[in-house]
Structure formats: C-alpha cells, structure tokens
C-alpha cells in the first residue's frame, strides 16, 4: 500500500497490484511521479504475518528513487509477533543468527499480458465490533442485538458516514455498511475487484476504520470473538472466476436439467470442480482462515459460524454458500467462503482459496458430499478443526493439502509463527 499524504480523506492510494491485461491501469514510475506531483511525502506499508500493516513515511524523492530497486525493511517484521516479541524459534525467513537482514518488500514491475489468463475476482464482507473508549474500559458503541438497524447508526452518524465516504478516497470502496447482530457490530461489504487488489483493500479498510475512529473516540475491534455469548466477527470472502472478456466462468450457460443436486443446476462444470477443490482442502488450510487462538471461539455451534465441511445453495450456515441463478444473475455467480473471521490475513486467505479451488479444477475433482439442505440428520458432515493446535497439526502434516498448494517454506514459516501464538497462550494465566 502506498498512500499520500494522510489518512484524512484526501489521500490517494497506489496498491501493489499494478494492473493487468484486462484493462486496469498499469502503474509505471512515470505516472506514479505524475500522480504525486503535488505531494512531498509518501506512506509505504506492507502486511506482516498477522495481517498488520507495517510501514513508514518517506520523502517523495526517496520513494521515487526506490521504485526501481524496491523498498527494504528489516526482516524482523517477519521474526516477531504483533507486540514485537521475537518468535519462540527461528523461522526459515529470518533468524537471529542471520541478524534480521533487510528484505525487499516491494518492487514495481510493469506486468505483461503473457502472465494472465483467467481472472479471480473477489469481494469481502468484514465485520467489526465498534467500542467507545472511556476512562474505565471499552464498551460497545450500541447495546443489544439489532441487525440492519436504521436508527442505531444515527447516534454516531458522523463516524458512520465519514468512514463510508473516506473508503472511496482510499481506494477501498464500501458497497454497503450496516449494523449486524451484536452489540456495536457493523459489517462492511467491500466492492468486488481483482483478487490481489482485494487483499490490499481489506487491509486498507481496517487501517482507515481505526484512523477515522480516533477522531470520534471509537476503536474498531477485529477480534474473531471479543464478547462471550454473542456471535463473533466474520471476514466472509466472495470469489468468482472470469475469462479475459469478463464472462463469469462459474455460471452455466443453460441450467442442468438432471443435476446430482438441484443446488448445482446453474453451476458450470468448472465451478463444480472449483467447489470440490475448496471442500477437499478446508480442513487442511484452516490456519489461513482462523489464525489465532481466539479464532476458534467464534467457530462454535449455534452462533452463525460454520463448524463443518459443508456447502449449499444460499445456505448461510454452511462453510461455503453457493450463489447462482435463479438467486442472482449469471454474471454474479460466486462462492461465499464463510469460515474466515475478521482477524484473517487477507492475502493468505485469498491465496489459499484460489489455490485450493484451482487444484480442484486441474484434477477435475467431483463434489463428494451432499449440500447441507439435502443431508439427512444421520449423515453428519466432517467436523473442522476445533482449535489452533488441531488446525496446525493438519496444516503442517507431511501430506497435507496445504503443502501441496502452498509454498513449503511458507507452510513451515507460518506454522512456526502460530506455534509462538500457542506458546504465549499456554503460558498466560487468565480469569478462567
């Protein structure tokens, strides 16, 4: 993320995604310099392994010189947690023995048409608990449960509307913004875009919501489960696949008159393979969707969060909600992956979804389980990992799907960072 100059609604954002053969603007050193003609400083940032933006302010001159060679930052950023405590063991990316050398964080290259075929598109629903700061403790912005309320945002209307407006300026445009079920819970749907840009936009929106909140003494909380007894905060991801002309490849040209299940009557063969790949991978890639100890407090029964390997047409309790005609127009055919919480790392989660689905396409995998609405009470769905320990065991296992679709060194690195999370949790003495 490159933003100039401030988070006050007047900044302009240049995402790391530079554009592609489908007609998006290609960012070059020349037009970046033109864009920044009236500015004298630039904020440069990237995400660490917890999905937290780390960055610095630099002069425009330094920034423009750095475009060709890339931006360096200490690799310690990937050697410590969100509190700057070094991981309990060295990782394959950085270590004390190597002295936490410099890493190149960003290098602007102009992409060519040769590197593109189909395009993954995504939009993202992210929920957050909004709290009001007081001298004693944080308290929910509004009390009680009232989703889609037209009156509750009025009490904090300046923040509510300003954040919506600022998201347009910051290139993380919000399509809808409303209260959700829970005390002080709000949900933002970020406008659909190419998958790499979407990951940037999720990170930007989190930063923007916190920066805007400072003015109003409001602190957004993106924990997956901050309050006992009420639903948690989700990070639902909608994903579709298009060709170079923008045609939705998950949509069927005409309905299948004899489908195995009516839920897939309007889903293309490619879409079915993609869905099968996702379902097959879910248990092994859970840390990409639920990366913290707290994540699994959200993934429990009867709180609107999925707990098993499940799918279904317009099914909001399943892990994957299938959205096709006749519910929507063919161009809007997509899958909603409902497992991620608001604490997700957007780049890791989106990459895992695309890789898992594409594995299903390459192997022409078939959907092996019935949709949730057609399953008999005796036919129980496979339970997803219930804890970070269990999820990590499957994630790092020798033959896991994670090791097949993700880089081996990345799997080892991320597993090590989560080991650190578990170590700190086990050492902590809580009220419980």
UniProtKB/TrEMBL annotation:
Gene3D superfamilies according to UniProt: Glutamine synthetase/guanido kinase, catalytic domain
Domain GS catalytic, first and last residues per copy: 102-432
Record-level GO BP terms: biogenic amine metabolic process
PROSITE patterns: GS_CATALYTIC
Keywords on record: ATP-binding, Ligase, Nucleotide-binding
A Gene Ontology molecular function term of the record: glutamine synthetase activity
UniProt record similarity statement: Belongs to the glutamine synthetase family.
Protein name: GS catalytic domain-containing protein
